[in-house]
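subagent[fold] <- orchestrator: predict structure for attached chain, return tokens only, no commentary.
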Amino acid sequence: MPMKSTISALKWVFPLAAGLTLCTPAYAYDVFEKSITDLQKSLASGEATSRELVEGYLARINAYDQAGPKINAIVALNPKALEEADALDKERGRKKLRGPLHGIPVLVKDNYETVGMPTTAGTMALATYMPATDSYAVKRLKAAGAIILGKTTMHELAAGIVTVSSLTGLTKNPYDPTRSPGGSSGGTGAAIGASFAAAGMGSDTCGSIRIPSAFQNLMGLRGTRGLSSRDGIVPLSSTQDIGGPLARSVTDLAIMLDATVGADPNDAITAESKGHIPKSYRAALVADGLKGARIGVVRFLYGNAPEDRDYGSVVDAALAKMKAQGAEVMDITIPGLEEALKDSSLINAEFRGDLDAFLAKRPKAPVHSFAEIFDHGLVHEQLFDRRALWEKVDEAVVKRAWEKRKAALDLVKETLEKNKLDALAYPTITRLPNLLGPQANGGQTCQLSAATGLPAMAVAVGFGAEGTPVGLELLGAPFAESTLLKLAYGWEQAEHPRKPPFSTPDLVDDTHPPKPMVLELSFPGGEAAMQLTYDVLTGIIHYKIGAADPAEMLGVTLQRGTAESPGGVIATLLLQGQKSGAGDIQLHSKDRDDLFAGRLFAHLYLRTSPLGTSRIPLLPQDAVAQN
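subagent[fold] -> orchestrator:
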């Protein structure tokens, strides 16, 4: 019997939350995907208050951080956030405005000391540490009128790039909650990607701002060594550490940079920034920022394994578009650079001593040394197993690392100058995020900026085959942040690369997340019937299915296809001879796209019709339109 296609037995239901009244929203302002500029316009016009912004972000955190997809990006919320918002609203009423961050909620990584909230650095050892003073960057943000909404999860003690810790467990990537958000600023990356605040702060020792930015379709900047103060940031490596912003747009990134950089008497290295910081980084943002730019592509940083090809092709496609927008894009060979970067990291040499020095100045901290933390087992096993790396310092290895760092810096500066390049380009990371777990992500390219101390920016450029975001990194000359921002802004204005994640959509009525979609489905002859519930926040289909005659049943499958022809089997919902079945199916990016395009079908196979008797689209386009 030929296979038939039908939609007559199909019913999709989109239930609302109990008691939800669409005509009377609980919050008057929707913060979803709003830029700092958007928020300021609404504040200036009276459309919103800072209190309403805080309430809007808290509603999203309530809906998605420990509920729904359970992103787990927030460690602590500021108990005085609403009080501070009210005070800033009153200042606005008196025409006293501090700048573009006045009354804007932001988040900071939990290694920034922040008065009124714990600063844990992601470790059980510091779970109760309440700092007496703010870190330099937090002081600057508060002075600029920003509301510190809360603290974000991080890879424990910043010593990794997947964001797992003894205190908070695993944080999820909102673009694929089965995968890591990157790290160590993964909580900030996930939170800003999910619109839990307007923008956020992270820290970068080797990729810890840039990798989470790349994995969450954000813009993130690691500045020149000495641009931003390290004061009040729990250290990993004093030589390589630097704080910096992550944001959904280049403009927001520039606003955050303007608020947080500058010379700090408590961090002597920031004296190097004097004379190099412009009056405003926003002034560098011009729509045709790529026109006439010269960009050198560093091919060895693309990797050469099969798993590197997907992200590399996305980066190359972006570079081709940059060329079409007026940039000169050329491959650049830098002899000796790959070798110079090997063994140039100082993290293993500096971590223990820097952490001990930090804790020694904080007698009220619950622990006082690296040894005390590890002796009590107050860290995740992933760190505990690496303790030996940080126990002893080999001075010969350190000396060689410094030699390699100088060689790498000299090679890059010479290449930039000789070829009159505005930036070098390569993938921020060459592989998609790991599945959730403590294992390190492969494909890192972070050491070039970390070893040379040169500024590098992760630029959102697209999505890989699995639907996860891809970042292109631009690295420039010392204190060339304005140039990098200009190039990234030109790209952003032409291509508009920002797309929000599926798992944290706009709230219904600014209050509640969308409810699951319930599908009741039966085949035309009544041989089988099923109920499928699609959780739009996790991409999981929960199914229950029963057969009228198990002896006749060969199987019911979920398959890709078109109205004209079937495709391959994705999952088997009912096995031969079974009377009933139930289970979960995790839909990934392509599956979700196919579901909403009407390209996923349930197929029925019987012993009398082993080639298939009928198939039903799970969600035909007319069903989408009806709802």
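orchestrator: received. Logging for downstream: Residues 1-25 have pLDDT under 50 and may be disordered. The chain has two domains: 4-15+515-626, 36-495.
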